[in-house]
Amino acid sequence: MSFPFSLKNLRLCRVVCCFMAASLPSISQAQVVLKAQPVLDEPKEAVAKLPPPPKEDLKASWQTQKEARAMTLSVPAPRGQIVDRHGIPFAQNRAASYLALVMPYMEGAGDAQIVAYAKNAIDGVNKALGKSWSLADDKLLLHYKHRRWLPLVFSIEEGLNVEITPDMEEKLKSLLGPSLVLQPAYLRHYPQGATACHIIGYTGKTRPLPTGPIVDGDPVFEEMEGREGIETAFDSDLKGVPGIVNVLFSPDGKRLSEDVRRVPSPGRNVVLSIDYNFQKYAENALRKHTTSGAMVIMDVTNGDILAMASNPGFDLNEFVPGIRAKRYEELTKDPRLPLYPRAFRGEYPPASTFKIVTALAALDSGKVTAKTYYDCTTALEVGNRVFHNWNKEGEGSMTVVTAIKRSCNTWFYRAALDSGADYLSNMALRLGFGERTGIPLKAEGAGFVQTNAWSLQNLGQKTQSGDLANMAIGQGRVLVTPLQACQCMAALGDGARIPQPRLVLQVQDIADRVVMAYEPKDRKRIDLNPDHRQTVINGMVAVVNGGGGTGRSAGIKHAEIAGKTGTAQWKIAKDQNLAWFTGFLPAGKPMFAFAVVYEGEPGETVSGGQKAAPIVREVFTNIFEKAPADDPMLLAMKDVPKAKVVEEEVTGSSDNEKIEPARPPPPQKKGIGGFFRKLFGRD
Question: Residue range 534-559: average pLDDT?
Answer without folding.
Answer: 94
